[in-house]
Amino acid sequence: xxxxVVGGGVGGLATAVALHARGVPVGVxxxxxxxxxxxxxxxxxxxxxxxxxxxxxxxxVREHSLPGDTAVIRTPSGxxxxxxxxxxxxxxxxxxxxVHRAELTEVLRAALPAGTVRAGVTVTGMRRDGRGxxxxxxxxxxxxxxxxxxxxxxxxxxxxxxxxGHAVPAGGxxxxxxxxxxxxAARDPAATDxxxxxxxxxxxxxx
Length: 207
Hints:
By secondary structure, this protein is an alpha/beta fold. Strands 8-2-1-12 form a 4-stranded parallel beta sheet, with helices on one face. It has a 4-stranded mixed beta sheet with strand order 13-5-6-14, with no helix packed on it. A 3-stranded antiparallel beta sheet has the order 3-7-4. It contains 6 helices and 14 strands. Helix 1 runs parallel beside helix 5. It has helices at 10-21, 46-54, 58-63, 86-90, 101-110, 156-160; strands spanning 3-6, 26-30, 41-44, 66-67, 71-73, 82-84, 97-100, 117-119, 123-128, 134-138, 141-144, 146-149, 178-179, 196-197. It has a single domain, classed as 3-Layer(bba) Sandwich (FAD/NAD(P)-binding domain), CATH 3.50.50.60. 23% of the residues lie in helices and 25% in strands. The longest helix is centred in the N-terminal third of the chain and has 12 residues, at 10-21. Strand 5 (71-73) and strand 6 (82-84) form a beta hairpin. Residues 155-207 are annotated as: Disordered.
């Protein structure tokens, strides 16, 4: 491949699909040996939905997702202190959808040719060859290709890239938002507890 994507998560697969759609030979290296159905629900905001539509995956994503019109914040103790209305807050700026990470991963993988994703391959380093081209070093050998590292800035591809790299904080306050509906999921009785609307940005629950 002309481009090697290091990391087979949502970001890496979406990058590979976009490159493939433009006719760029691409490969994906994923250190996990097998595809996992584990993961959490994801809230895709309008920019993310538009990005997936731009690479031709809009219909497939909508088939596997639910409207993110209402969400709640749930504490580890089971309380629901807040309720969010993303769709109402955004107005006509685009749709918000909720999808399980495993289902989104399946949609992305299905859009790539067989053999694009190589599982069980760990990148151990990167260097430049005698002509200045980037080389990906794995336990199985070396490959010359332009490199896109999407496994997280704290992982080896980011810090080992010949151009250099460093960790950049990606967020501020903590918290989690989950859709209140999911295909096939039983409703949590605790979700009927009163919830107080509050801004989407929030910090750790004081309780």
